[in-house]
Design a protein that fits this description.
The protein is mostly helical. The protein is built from twelve helices and no strands. The radius of gyration is 20 Å and the shape is globular.
């Protein structure tokens, strides 16, 4: 039976961990605002009621939470060592997450201005995708940072290398998704088609989750880690067209997903939500079964 003194120590440690994590979260929030000076949070959320910005902003917070969580999970090495680990890896996670957003903006959504679509046009589809990129990147960072990998310097090295590999895999997979869809994603997103944005966002998060699953765990060597992550990526490439077919034939019987999303005067957001669920649900199911 746990004594009162042991319970008090557990509570004390938990409060300290939460306080440190919250401090790092605030730093992550400040860094995001510093890197996006044209994004006036109060003005967009309160004065303009900008839903596109709200979705992108909350997506960043979710990704930030996942990234910071990568430094918290795992066995304890003592309160002081844990605080140092959380601080170092938490700050590293902030840097990696913002690098992910920068790369994705210029490589994944390169055909138009993200700032213009979210701030000026209040394009909800773009905001949803931007938020999904943050969530997927947070998942990748969670897999890259969590786990034991030797001393801290080597741990930072493996985290950065695995993050870079995962980010490249995410960008390539989204290119593949655009290739297998019977319409140009960028064109329809720029036309404020929220349904297309939702479906694409589901695919992004699903792939991020699979990459996370391939990266998570203790470091056992470069080749095993890259092999497992590569296998998860191949599974993801198979998952996307299969899940889209399942959505067409089973989840939306008698209807064409493409017709519902782009060939209507008012795109069917509900059908896009079903498509996004199929991608994300399929990725979760795969991680449970492997």
């Amino acid at each position: 039976m746990i004594s009162l003194s042991e319970i008090s120590y557990i509570i004390y440690d938990a409060v300290v961990y939460i306080a440190v994590a919250f401090a790092i979260f605030l730093i992550g929030k400040f860094v995001y605002q510093l890197l996006h000076p044209s994004f006036k949070v109060k003005e967009e959320l309160v004065k303009k009621d900008n839903f596109a910005f709200a979705i992108a902003h909350v997506g960043y917070y979710v990704g930030l939470l996942l990234a910071i969580g990568s430094a918290i999970v795992g066995p304890s090495n003592g309160l002081v060592n844990d605080i140092i680990d959380i601080a170092v890896y938490g700050l590293l996670a902030i840097v990696l997450l913002n690098c992910s957003i920068f790369l994705s903006d210029y490589l994944m959504l390169r055909n138009f201005s993200i700032r213009k679509e979210i701030i000026e046009d209040q394009n909800a589809g773009t905001g949803i995708i931007e938020g999904a990129v943050s969530v997927a990147s947070g998942l990748i960072i969670f897999g890259a940072v969590s786990g034991e990998s030797g001393d801290m310097l080597f741990g930072i090295l493996t985290a950065v290398v695995f993050w870079a590999f995962g980010q490249l895999a995410l960008i390539l997979t989204t290119r593949f998704y655009n290739w297998i869809t019977p319409y140009n994603i960028h064109d329809h997103i720029e036309k404020d088609n929220v349904a297309v944005g939702i479906g694409f966002a589901g695919a992004i998060i699903a792939i991020g989750n699979l990459i996370r699953f391939g990266l998570v765990g203790d470091f056992e060597g470069w080749l095993p880690s890259f092999t497992e992550t590569g296998f998860e990526l191949v599974v993801g490439l198979i998952l996307l067209p299969v899940m889209r077919l399942i959505t067409d034939k089973i989840l939306l019987p008698g209807e064409k997903l493409t017709d519902e999303i782009i060939n209507q005067e008012r795109p069917n957001v509900g059908a896009a939500l079903v498509e996004a669920f199929a991608y994300i649900g399929g990725s979760v199911l795969i991680t449970w079964c492997l």
